[in-house]
Amino acid sequence: MSPTPFWLFLRPEAKTVNDAAAEKVKVRGVLHGGVAFFAHPFVRFLVSRGTFYLLAIVAGFTMTFFIPRLMPGNPVDMMLRPAQPGLPGLAGGASPAVGRAADFARIRAALEEFFGLDKPLHQQYLVFWQRLFRGDLGPSFAFSMQPVAEIVGRALLFTLVLVVPVLLLSFYLGNYIGASAAISQRGVSSLVYYGSLFFAQMPFYWFAMILSFLLALKAGLFPFYGWHSPELLPNWSLSFLMNVAWHYALPFLALLIGSIGTWTVGMWSMMLYEMRSDYILYCQQLGFRKRTLKKYAKRNAMLPQYTGFNLVLSGLIGQTVITEVVFGWPGLGSLGYRAILSRDYPLLMGTFLVTVVVVLLGNFLMDILYGLIDPRIRTGYVERG
Amino acid sequence: MWRRLVRDGQFLMALGVVGLIVGVGVLGPRFVRNPHAFVWLPNQPPSRQFLLGTDPFGRDVLARLVVGIRTSLLVGVYAGLIGVALGVTVGLVSGYMKGVAGETLNLLTNVVMVFPVLPVLIILAAIFERRSLVLVGTIIGVVSWPWAARCIRAQVLSLREREFVRLAKISGDRHVKIAFLEIMPYMLAYIVMVFVLMLGGAIGAEAGISMIGLGPTDAVSLGNLLFWAMVHEATRVGHWWTFLPPGLVLTLLTVFSLIMHKRMDQIFNPRLRTW
Questions:
Q1: Best to test chain B binding among A52, A322, A361 (most B CBs inside 10 Å)
Q2: What is the C-alpha to C-alpha distance for residues A243 and B23, in angstroms, rounded to an integer?
Q3: CB–CB of A212 and B110 under 8 A?
Q4: Does pTM surpass 0.90?
Q5: Among A180, A142, A159, which Cα is nearest to A354's?
Q6: Tens digits of residue pLDDT in A72-100
Q7: Is B115 in Cβ contact with A325 (below 8 Å)?
Q8: Rounded Cα–Cα distance for residues B232 and B228 (Å)
Q9: A28-68 pLDDT, tens per residue?
């Protein structure tokens, strides 16, 4: 028996719409609609996955809380060591965050207040969470004490603009290429496979440098750096947006081509596996057309690809972060890079927290979608319950 | 099975490429110039005397590449060893132990696994002022074990129901001994595969953190070369010889270690075996 779609339980007449479901609910001894909603396997699936990701987020945030505190000495002193007047910075010269002694004292006071270092550890931890819920990530001294949350929020937008289209478009194109290549002639097939393996495994930022060399320097088609031409002021006019798109093209292409490789490799292998399976061989015997076979095999080969989303998202975020640095695209990566160069620890932590939340939310979303897509998961949860 | 592996064309080719790169990394540094010395005019394109030209400080790019390969391999080996040790231990224990302990370890594995590797590496590496080669390898190993633990756990779950495990239990062996001396040897081929894959992954990860200036501070690595090429805007001034070779070596190394892994999997993994 197929399970009732869980949203039916949201409607009062739901139990009469699907008698079988109501029967099942009765058998379980759960009689009321509200409880039935939580008894539905899909809802339970959501709750368990949601709890898991919540746990992961708490673990990640706790880690960022303890890392600076496990270091010997006062964490603020550790963070500020490179910014102290008179000490050498990263590259030997004056550090970028260097200020006058008065500024330094101000920064130090603000950070100590922010971390609540005079309080005992458990209270500090509570304060840490309180501030997180308020969206307060502390001040950034590389950005003249602006709130980290504000800076990171801006950068997040730029990263998402890069990651989301790349992820979706590469998923579509990669699966298409992989499926088509797997059933074409042997030579073409393996050429596509090894080609995409190369693209999938290369560091995307290295490919970004090659694209920058070929398309920006040799062909002169695209700019090298930044997100808009320096002579323009950011506004919403069409010409400015076109300018941004022009700067967007290279980082986008670099990430897209690499990601397509990732999906193609997965799809190609799964497709070959499916094409060997019994039902396809049977259809072949019956004389089905190749196009029809491809359609059938692709449907099954797609399923593992959806689970691959989580892995690809994590990997892509990492690659994006560095590719942004190569092109000076002002996303989380460039921000983190700047935080590292100026030893701006609160900024680095803020960037990290936001990145982690994005990845975990993306994973959760994909789990939900996968639960909706794969009938085996839905029924599997019914049988177990 | 090993004989079949040795006759596998794809495996041999992959082994050849990886072996060549490893050979260059191990033996090469004896035959090249000092990678830190000013040897010729800066920014010279490849010539017969300097096969890969010179960098903005007048250093020999070929020498830096060869030494970089060695550093990257070393980081990969450290990280691979630590990652495999952690992955095997956690996988074995979480698969072998039933009940709360096993489930907790499994949960830990899953939680660590959902974190994106590179950002975690970045904040861990950013704590340290000076990072030795061993430290970077350790950090990478500590972060990259979860997938190995998960694969090993899956194998242990089925292995622990076998006869010989029951026999060992009846004869009164301790659980630790059963897990590490009875079950683990069964997966040795698989563990070697995990190591190969982890080595490739760790070399890529090292390049990633080096690229934003968080790599080893006491050595030249492949990622370090790319980092300086980026800082000196090599693409804008057209010095392709400073950034093309390191990336190419990195890619070849990871691609062919992956192919090696795949062929070994096809031969050792009974479910994928086609003969």
A1: A322
A2: 48
A3: no
A4: no
A5: A159
A6: 556 676 666 655 554 444 444 444 444 56
A7: no
A8: 6
A9: 554 455 566 666 777 777 888 888 899 998 988 888 888 77
